[in-house]
Every structure is written in structure tokens, then in C-alpha cells.
Design a protein that fits this description.
single chain, alpha+beta, six-stranded mixed β-barrel, 52% helix
């Protein structure tokens, strides 16, 4: 592909050290911008479905009016228990969810968090670290489990609990006690989480009616087919409930944040802007490179070198710039990811797929710039150069 001409491309690039440094800095900046936008976007999708992934069931019932976890509407749990009429259904589990105000016990500043209410008698409803060993504690009145991955604005709850202190706080104007810790993590929808029993949930939310749940979790028998059971439930249950597989429930949440809010669009737009900025920077560098060596290129044209030769050289320069500029951009993005995780407690991590995606975008970005810059060389004729 390269025809052994990489040395010429490399010699031209490194001839102007300052120009090379500027080009690499510009490409690295564009890569960092794309890395951060894609990282935050994927963090948005991942963090907002961690609860969905923790559900230990095959089928989910929700209200048809629900669009995302932020706005799950209640429906009658009678619909959930009616699913037990199907022979393939093994068990059903009602789950309550709602958002309320948590008052920091140190500063007194309120902050909203997500409260989950489950029946503590039923094991393996949610696969969350720290939950199973603490289920018996939430059987006590006004006892909750606190997410130790919540943001610090809720107070030093986990620290004081691990020190053996008696930790209490005010939730919905009701004094509750922290009986244990679990680990779920913050999301774009909730900076903190509580898990308690269904009875305690109704104590915290006195306006909520018992039996009006937000999620109905269904486990099917081992040899039953999920798609078949979902189809049967959709035909059997009334239209005032929506029947989804667990994966459909996850996809519905991701689609809401990607298309139903401005956040997903903003992150995608930021990635596009980074790509455009990088393209302009590389184009300016390669255009100047072609202009500065126009006489040399015209001489080579005069002695018979075809236009394809110069096209390969410029594309080689673009490829070298892409790889050299990508490396510092990748390294600095790793550093920024770490700082973002520490500041936001969001799962901002580098993935192999994203690393390859940005590398491909960088190479494509530089090739586009090279294709535009080569137009000046195409218009140049040897006779015009030596007039």
C-alpha cells in the first residue's frame, strides 16, 4: 500500500519541528474531546441501567405510561400476581420505587435520592453487592440500607457506619436508621440510593397506596422460553400493564436517555465537533506542508512521477500524524477519566471498543484532511512553478 515511501513522508513531517508539535497537539486535543464526550455518553447509558441489570428475573412489568426509571408510574400488583396463572411462571416480586429528599445529617442540606422498596423475605430479587447479607436488617421499622457509592453531599454516612456509629438521617421528614451498606453507584438520574422493605417504603411515602407498585419482576421456570412467556403474558394481561423482557427494559432506558433527553444529543454533538476541529487542524498543517514543498513536488512531476505518488505520500503523512497525535490524546484521556470518576462517582472508564473507535475516527479525520490538501498539488503545473 505504501510502496516503501514512508521515509519521504516522515522526513517532510519532522523537518519543521514546531509545525509537527502544533499538529500533534491539535490532533491530541481533538482526540481528548472525542474521548471525553464518548466516555460521558457511555457512562450515561451504563450508570442508568445498573439497577436494571441487577434485577434477578426474566420478565418485567411496568405501567404503559412509564418512560424511564425517573418516571415509573405505579400500577396494581394484582396484574403481577395474575401472571402466576401461567404454568411457565415460577415466581413474581413487586418492587416500589420513588424519589425523595434526604437531609444531610451534618449540614442539614436536602438532596434527592432513589428509594427502592422490596419484600425482604424474598431472596435474590436484586443482585447488588452488600444487599443479601443485610436483608434481615430492613425488616425492622424505619431501617434502610445506604448506597456507599453515593455522592459525598449526602454526608459521611458510610464512613461513620463502618466506624460503628449509630447513623440516622431525615428522609421525607421521617427519622430513619441506616442498618447496612450496599454498592450500586450514582447515575445521571440519582446521585444516591436507598433500599428498604416494602413496609418501610410505605412509611417513608405515606401518600403511596399499598399494592400500587412500580416494577413487577417475574421469574420463569428453568426450561421455559422467555419470548414465548412474554407473548402469552401480553395476550393474557390487560393493556394497563406493559410486558417486557429484562433486555427490553434495559434498552428502553437507554433509548430514553439517548433520544428522549438532550444529554445524549449533546454528547454526540460534542464528538462530532471534536472530529471537525481535528480535521481543520490537520488540513491546515498538511496544506502548509504541500505549499512549502510545491517546488519540489513540481520538479518530481516534471521528471515523470505520477500524481498517485504524491497522493500516497500525503496520505502517509496523514497516517503518521494520526498515530502520533492519538498516543498523547489517549494517555491524557485516561488521566481525565480517573479525575472524572473521582469528581462525579460515575463509571467513566476506557473501553477497548472506544479506544479503537477513536483511533479509526482519528485516521479517517486525517485522511479527509489529506484528501482536501492534495487538491492544491493537483492544480500545480511544473511550467507554472518555474516561470
Amino acid at each position: 500500500m505504501f510502496g516503501g515511501k514512508i521515509p519521504l513522508a516522515w522526513l517532510q513531517i519532522k523537518w519543521e519541528k514546531t509545525r509537527l508539535a502544533v499538529a500533534l497537539a491539535g490532533i491530541a486535543f481533538a482526540d481528548i474531546l472525542m474521548f471525553m464526550q464518548l466516555g460521558f455518553r457511555d457512562s450515561l447509558y451504563y450508570s442508568n441501567v445498573r439497577f436494571h441489570n441487577s434485577l434477578q428475573g426474566d420478565i418485567v412489568l411496568i405501567s404503559p405510561q412509564s418512560s424511564a426509571l425517573l418516571s415509573l408510574k405505579p400500577f396494581s400488583q394484582r396484574r403481577l400476581y395474575r401472571a402466576l396463572d401461567l404454568p411457565a411462571v415460577q415466581s413474581v416480586h413487586p418492587i416500589y420505587l420513588d424519589y425523595t429528599s434526604w437531609k444531610n445529617p451534618v449540614t442539614g442540606i436536602p438532596r434527592n435520592l432513589l428509594v427502592v422498596g422490596i419484600n425482604p423475605v424474598h431472596k435474590n430479587i436484586l443482585k447488588i453487592p452488600g444487599l443479601q447479607e443485610n436483608l434481615d436488617k430492613i425488616k425492622m421499622p424505619d431501617v434502610v440500607l445506604f448506597d456507599q457509592s453515593s455522592r459525598q453531599e449526602y454526608g459521611p454516612i458510610a464512613t461513620e457506619f463502618l466506624q460503628g456509629k449509630n447513623v440516622t438521617a431525615e428522609v421525607q421528614r421521617r427519622l430513619i436508621k441506616v442498618g447496612g451498606l450496599f454498592t450500586l453507584g450514582a447515575s445521571f438520574g440519582a446521585d444516591g440510593n436507598l433500599i428498604t422493605s416494602d413496609i418501610n417504603f410505605l412509611r417513608i411515602f405515606p401518600n403511596r397506596q399499598q399494592g400500587l407498585i412500580n416494577i413487577g419482576l417475574i421469574k420463569i421456570k428453568p426450561r421455559a422460553d422467555v419470548e414465548t412467556v412474554v407473548k402469552d403474558l401480553r395476550n393474557y394481561l390487560p393493556l394497563d400493564v406493559k410486558v417486557l423482557t429484562k433486555q427490553e427494559f434495559i434498552d428502553k432506558e437507554r433509548h430514553f436517555w439517548a433520544s428522549g433527553t438532550a444529554i445524549g444529543f449533546i454528547f454526540t454533538l460534542g464528538t462530532i465537533m471534536g472530529f471537525i476541529v481535528g480535521t481543520v487542524i490537520v488540513y491546515q498543517i498538511l496544506y502548509t506542508e504541500v505549499a512549502d514543498h510545491l517546488v519540489e513536488y513540481a520538479t518530481l512531476k516534471a521528471i515523470g512521477y505520477p500524481h498517485k505518488y504524491f497522493l500516497i505520500v500525503i496520505f502517509q503523512e496523514a497516517l503518521i500524524l494520526a498515530v502520533l497525535g492519538y498516543l498523547p490524546g489517549f494517555a491524557f484521556a485516561l488521566f481525565l477519566y480517573q479525575k472524572a470518576r473521582e469528581a462525579t462517582l460515575l463509571p467513566v472508564f476506557m473501553s477497548f471498543e472506544r479506544a479503537i473507535q477513536v483511533l479509526i475516527l482519528t485516521i479517517f479525520m486525517c485522511f479527509i484532511s489529506g484528501a482536501i490538501a492534495i487538491r492544491k498539488l493537483r492544480a500545480a503545473e511544473p511550467a507554472d512553478i518555474f516561470k
